[in-house]
């Protein structure tokens, strides 16, 4: 049972992020002592690292199986070889290369997400969204928008007006009439503010949150969104019916042609009457009469949809259908007249199925900003953040017109008062200066993924968030063994891959001289055994007349090139599955059929299990050495293995390796039980 390291180690890393350290609670004192298992040039490797990898790389189903001493020794040697290669990569400066830093930073960002506070907050928002999806709500609203380029006084005036309208609505005024009079949502002139039914993720987040917090008939205080202030009245709430799939037939109307309405009404009525006849078929009727060019050829089929996803009139009629195959009376929408048929329905999907979609949508809408704000507030409290408010206010005042891109204005402000060393913020008792703030902005602007920031406040929030994330991650490394070991695993895996790619894999492929020298030095490993050209026909034993015909056709033949094509032309055109046929040179001792044949005869009739074989063999080819070109692929593979072994030998000579035998014995006792 050999588990192995090397490139397999890297691949295992990438596919096992949820693995846990397999150390029982009673063994925790061993890890707490931090006594090294072995050192490489004085750099220690601890028991927890080896036990973690050892358990992770055991075959599925054998995680708790007893481990022999030989297996333990083999895996320890493999792990030492792995760590030697990592040490060599560091000695050669691979960890300082920009490619490594970029790759590891990307991995690190993905690795730490599940462990950070942000993940918990995000999970809470996902659960909240899914809970809201279980209901649909019906709401009306009145929108008061801000004037273009509104000043603070304008915003306050809009708020005061919204509060006045809310007071009237709560006092019993007709909400629809208020919407008709005051709402700046253009649709209010048609729907009197009634938005119909909707569910989570269909409205901007502040609106959704306010609507779901109301009781039926209750009117909300003014709710601020990017559109302005909303006064919301909840009209109804009920369980979410899930999604449905319908097909439809459409007869269009033309608003600019008054007569088209009458023609459409008569036409849709006639079609509806025809559909009610037993002799009619839905698909043919849709194909003949529907004016929806996108769906008429597929029976009028529409994609799955839920509440709030389609025009209200169509949606209401569709969800009122109860039986599969049931058709609705004609339904009027802005597009014309529809007849709708119910094709299928399904409930809300389980959370696990919807989670990826919900997460993607949450990260794209305003919830993402809310999550970041919540996380920042939690981190500030946890890490006792003390901000230099007067200094921040001075920066915002002095740089009120700063575009957030050019560093010169910021540099001038900091230099004019020699403020570089002033503390901007203190985190967990550790002060951070304005110089660090400047360096963060400079580095961010030089990044390929740089995003524009809007002045001092925006840059400061990014800076503080970055600092707090760093502090939180450092705490994770110190207190969470899962994360610490996983992070180390990825780092070392990337270094190993880079080293092996340069010194073993690519060298083995590109070093043609080395390949040939290795081939010549090991020519005894690249030998052809006795070979013979053979035509092998394989078919099931069905005792068919065709089987007999093929047998008689080949019986008096000798092997020669071209028989394969003649057999295929004669039989496979009419019976394509009658047989399979191979024409190739095979090594006699290694071929399951040919090895048992008497090669002094040309034709062979062999039955094995359910298969019937007819074989023609030619003149035997004596054993000989393979030419380099004939075995180049195997030579490259063997040469790479040789380079790998040579590298390990060199590293064991280069580095001072010391194994603590007492610790090794203790680790073995843990591993075998």
Written account of the structure:
The chain is α+β, with helices and mostly antiparallel strands and about 675 residues long. Among the domains are: about 135-240, Chitinase A, domain 3 (Roll), CATH 3.10.50; about 245-345, Chitinase A, domain 3, CATH 3.10.50; about 385-480, no CATH class; about 525-625. It has 25 helices and 20 strands. The strands form 6 sheets. It has a 4-stranded antiparallel β-sheet, with helices on both faces. Helix 6 (about 115-135) crosses helix 14. The longest helix is centred in the C-terminal third of the chain and has 30 residues, at about 480-510.
Please outline what is shown here:
By secondary structure, the protein is of the alpha+beta class.
What attributes characterize this protein structure?
673 residues, alpha+beta, Chitinase A, domain 3, 4-stranded antiparallel β-sheet, 17% strand
Write the layout of secondary structure elements.
Layout: H1 7-14, H2 28-33, E1 36-40, E2 43-46, H3 47-56, H4 69-91, H5 98-112, H6 117-133, E3 135-144, H7 152-170, H8 175-182, H9 188-191, E4 194-198, H10 205-213, E5 223-225, E6 228-239, E7 243-252, H11 258-275, H12 282-289, E8 305-306, H13 312-319, E9 331-333, E10 336-346, H14 351-364, H15 367-382, E11 386-387, H16 389-398, H17 408-416, E12 423-427, E13 430-433, H18 434-446, H19 455-479, H20 481-510, H21 512-521, E14 527-528, E15 531-540, H22 545-555, H23 563-572, E16 580-587, E17 603-608, E18 611-617, E19 624-625, H24 632-654, E20 657-659, H25 661-672
Antiparallel strand pairs: 1-2, 1-20, 3-4, 3-6, 5-6, 7-8, 7-10, 9-10, 11-12, 12-13, 14-19, 15-16, 15-18, 17-18
